[in-house]
Amino acid sequence: MLTAMAAAPSERADAVRNRQKILAAAARLVAAGAAERLSLDEVARVADVGVGTVYRRFGDRAGLVFALLEEQHQLFRARVVEGPPPLGPRADAGDRLRAFLHALVDLSVGQRELLLLAESSSPPARYLSASYDFQHAHAGRLIAELRPDADAAFLADALLAPFAPSLIDHQCRVRGFSPERIKAGFDQLVHGTLESAR
Amino acid sequence: MLTAMAAAPSERADAVRNRQKILAAAARLVAAGAAERLSLDEVARVADVGVGTVYRRFGDRAGLVFALLEEQHQLFRARVVEGPPPLGPRADAGDRLRAFLHALVDLSVGQRELLLLAESSSPPARYLSASYDFQHAHAGRLIAELRPDADAAFLADALLAPFAPSLIDHQCRVRGFSPERIKAGFDQLVHGTLESAR
DNA sequence: GAGACAAACGGAGATTTCTCCATATCCATA
DNA sequence: TATGGATATGGAGAAATCTCCGTTTGTCTC
């Protein structure tokens, strides 16, 4: 469980085929609105594959959903690592951090459904995923550059914590926050709006 | 589901009795180390009650676990509302906010097991609970007092987000953060350590 | 090609969560 | 204290997640 799934060194042809079939079936079901209650039995049935195969390929529900999210995360990662500033390199750390948080807001709001599904399948999986590792490392680097004496590892966790899918969803649906308001909120947080506290 | 359970205006005597038996059984099982995999069937069996009764009383797993946490939260709430400063009233807002966050660190670390269980039962339940409402309102009030022009509702969510049980657990177990380090991290966050970002 | 071995498949079934409703229990009223 | 109706009970069973393992399929070697 909680397995991150990258194609192993040499994966048999039938395994690759089935991985595709399962991902396609799951994507189709999610697109069809069966997101909230996505049953792996049903995925297997639609993919025309045994349930055991789904579990062998993806470990558990969370693994399957993370695999579905993987493509978007690769794109995001590429924009951060080699895209144009201010998200990509060659902007100063402050601007990059701001752009990074804003982009994450859009990503989190846009993928809300799948992210919620992943979280409900296994809340701790987020912190064990390659994608969180990347986000934490990137934010940590920028913070360390801005403030060499701060606890960058903690602050990176703290800045990423509000992207927990259920909180984003709660803010959007219950509190009625717009993505712009959330972005502005992060600006305030990062700009030391609370500084007088003490 | 996600039901917050306060004793209804007039609850029948057998209902009250069974509520107690179930809570006692659940507490006993958790204390006995069966926390990670606490089965409601087993709770029912130990409480000598039908499964249906457990669900009627508590709605679902999350409801039962929140009920187990309730007592601690009442105590915490009382300390905040009418305890001695700096956590209680009659300290300035900055000191109260700091004390509040520090106390929450201790509470979150101390109740880690039960909180994880609650989160894994239903991640969004946290944001719908009376206890989160209280924390959000309290932090929001203090923030508004410190910075009347800030978005207190968002910032309160953002300051509470790092208390997500799976993050706290990850920081304690995987990153090896001590409670003191987490408290110091919150101090940096609140003191505007990141301010030069921009 | 044929054989051998590892890898993958599939689906029966164990486990768990939660629902439903026929039955049992409580209690307000008279 | 008898009674009627609202409330609560309990366990069978529906639905979902995940495991286990006998069988099948790929792939590597000769």
Task: Please give the structural blueprint.
Two copies of one chain form a homodimer.
Chain A: H1 13-31, H2 40-47, H3 51-58, H4 61-82, H5 93-110, H6 112-121, H7 125-128, H8 130-146, H9 152-160, H10 165-174, H11 179-190
Helix pairs in contact in A: 1-2, 1-3, 3-4, 4-6, 5-8, 5-11, 6-10, 8-9
Chain A binds a DNA duplex (30 and 30 nucleotides) through residues 1, 10-15, 18, 37, 39-41, 44, 49-53, 55-57, 60-61.
Number of helix segments of chain A?
11
Structural class of chain A: mainly alpha
Identify the biggest protein-protein contact and residues per side. A-B, 52 and 53 residues
Question: Which residues of chain A sit in consecutive blocks of at least 5 with pLDDT less than 50?
Answer: 1-8
How much of the residues of chain A is beta strand, in percent? Answer: under 5%
Total domain count of chain A: 2
Q: What form of chain A results from the Cα inertia axes? A: globular
Q: What features would you describe in this structure?
A:
- The structure is a homodimer of 198-residue chains.
- Chain A is mainly α.
- Chain A contains eleven helices and no strands.
- The structure holds a DNA duplex (30 and 30 nucleotides).
Write a concise synopsis of the structure shown.
Two copies of one chain form a homodimer. Chain A is mostly helical and 198 residues long.
Q: Can you tag this structure with a few keywords?
A:
2 domains; mainly alpha; 198 residues; DNA-binding
